[in-house]
Amino acid sequence: MENSPEVAFNYDDSNWPLAFKTEGEEIQKTAREVVIRGSFNLPELTDSTEITLLAKSLGQQQAIYINGTLIAKNIKRDDPDQKYKLKRTILHQGRNVYAIAGTPLVKRTQWEILNTDPGLLQVYTPAKPWKRKVFNGLAQVIVQSDQKAGELILTAKAEDLNSDSIKLKSELIKK
Hints:
The protein has no helices and nine strands. The protein has 175 residues and is an all-beta fold. It has two domains: 5-124, Galactose-binding domain-like (Jelly Rolls); 137-170, no CATH class. A hairpin with a 2-residue loop joins strand 3 (59-66) and strand 4 (69-76). The termini are far apart.
């Protein structure tokens, strides 16, 4: 089913029946090939955001598509290595389409419950580098007196900023 129109981003699947009517129900007992579609939303992504798909088997053998782009093919049922770093170029902010194309899962025993979970999407955005911020741009100054009245001039200077001064008058308080 490679390059099938059903895996494309804009394919209209609004009239499709639900893939899983009840948990663990077989998709289609007589189908040779199936396409299962779903969608997920992504927030605004930064250049450093990493997105990893941790997929699970929804078919005996399957191919995985994101927004119509083939991510992996010939994945066998219950393959333990279904971890895929997704390229940012195939993802959109907002709605994205996830499609599985392949042969449907078949129960190996009558009591087996078939998987209906497509997996997880890990979105990792590293924290910004630590940066010292004191008082949100404000400063606090503690002045100690030598117990003499007079004028105190406080001047603030910083690189790339205008300097400024403030004059304070101190008075001797008699006890």
